[in-house]
Amino acid sequence: MKQVIVEYGQSLLDCVIQYYGKIDALETFCTDNNLAYDALLITGSSLKVRTTEPVPGEDKQIREYFEKRKLMVVSGMPMNGEVLPVPEDYNYLQQEDEYYILLE
């Protein structure tokens, strides 16, 4: 397993999609990290992700899509008018307070 860091605005479901490609891997992810299905994640916390054995419900093709393009799944909404930071190396479009990641 490898350790990953929760990014600002990421939810539990965001992390499952990011690292396993499908929500179907939620049970495995929660079990590996001793989390409830409705757990709120803390930015900067460390979580375990399987890297060697197949994960039930995983979609390797979707996971690799995110990895190759350096895309981060983040569905969290800013609080109190904050704007979510977007890394400089991401291609994105900003409209008012919303960002849209541009895919190739």
Mean pLDDT: 80
Q: State the helicity in percent bands.
A: 25-40%
The description of the largest β-sheet is:
2 strands, antiparallel
Q: What is the succession of H and E elements?
A: EHHEHEE
- Tell me the span between the first and last alpha carbons: 30 Å
What characteristic shape results from the CA principal axes?
globular
Radius of gyration: 14 Å
Number of beta strands: 4
Low-confidence stretches: none
Structural class, please? alpha+beta
The percent range for strand residues is 15-25%
| Number of helices in the DSSP assignment | 3
Q: Order of strands across the biggest sheet? A: 1-2
Please tell me about this protein's structure:
By secondary structure, the protein is of the alpha+beta class. Helices cover 26% and strands 15% of the residues. The strands form two sheets. The protein has a two-stranded antiparallel ribbon with strand order 1-2. A two-stranded antiparallel sheet has the order 3-4. A hairpin with a 2-residue loop joins strand 3 (92-95) and strand 4.
State the gist of this model.
This protein is α+β, with helices and mostly antiparallel strands and 104 residues long. It is built from three helices and four strands.
Features:
single chain; 104 residues; alpha+beta; two-stranded antiparallel sheet; two-stranded antiparallel ribbon; 3 helices; 15% strand; globular
Topology (elements, then pairings):
Blueprint: E1 2-5, H1 12-20, H2 26-33, E2 46-49, H3 60-69, E3 92-95, E4 98-101
Antiparallel strand pairs: 1-2, 3-4
